[in-house]
Amino acid sequence: MFSNDPLKPQVNLTLSAKVNQFATYPKKIDLYGMVGNQISQTVEIIPNENFPFKIESSTAHPGTSISVKIDSNDKGYLLTVTNTRTSPGRFWEKLILKTNSKIKPEITIPVYGTISAKN
What we know:
Layout: E1 23-24, E2 29-34, E3 40-47, E4 55-61, E5 66-72, E6 77-83, E7 89-99, E8 106-116
Parallel strand pairs: 2-8
Antiparallel strand pairs: 1-3, 3-6, 4-7, 5-6, 7-8
């Protein structure tokens, strides 16, 4: 920090803070498997007790390779993300969860997939 004090024109400041996490959820979801097999992953979203919220809707963008099912439990939510591709290849989707929270009205989770051909 700069000051007008001629004896200490510059002072170093150290700041620290405790940051509360809004919710516990995965930073990404990976789907790997072979064409024709059921490929899905179930993940938990657990709201911080200081920031309660409800998931109001979910959307996948572009929405061509996955489907999403949301169930609630006593801790929060279970999301089951399932591959819908019928051909081999890689994909990237963005799962967008709309919440009723003013702090974080949207949770975005990237979904990566690699679907292999049968040998």
